[in-house]
Amino acid sequence: MANQDDSFIREVNDELRSDQMRAVWQRFGRVLIGAAVLVVLGTIGKVAYDYWSEREASASGDRFLAALTLARENKQDEAAAALAELEKDGYGAYPVLARMRSASLMAEKGDIEGAVAAFTAISKDGALPQPLRDAARLRAAYLLVDTGSYEQVSAEAEQLATPQSPLRHSAREVLGLSAYKHGDFARAKEWFEAITNDGEAPRNVANRAQMLLDLIAASGKLS
Known about the structure:
Helix content is 81%, strand content 0%. The chain is an all-alpha fold. The longest helix is centred in the N-terminal third of the chain and has 71 residues, at 2-72.
């Protein structure tokens, strides 16, 4: 008798659960289906976007490498044209990389003024990541060592020479080189010593700084 009662109770519970499920489905079925469809569409969209993004990045990368190859083959006009196109319709980081390489190409062709202007424009583009802007600023400073005044070099590089800047070693070097070139040996000595006294300075940069410090000392200009 007890077994029959238990069986009856289970059947009643199963029926109640079935009625509850039907009620829930009638009330929320469309919502549940809609949510499931959105999840599926979202997944499809993400997969499609990832595929498109990877394909576009790969295509832009191939175009960038092709432009670099043209530059290495001294086909500078063709390389400049390819980089200009990539600046317009490239994907991801490649347009700004094309801008950077185009500016370098100007310098290689002897257009230092145009190259400095191009790098300066990149450094002032607030839409770009700060590390790229800083790299462009430093590149402009190096170009100005031979063609500009110390003040022009300082305007580009001195803000990168702070202890917190990851580019401080190169920034100090370019400032020291500019001061040395313009005969300001005291200032050059200060910048080169800032490099040699920095325990995190790369060895090659520190070695160059020490060599120039030795030249300044040997010249007797500060005695």
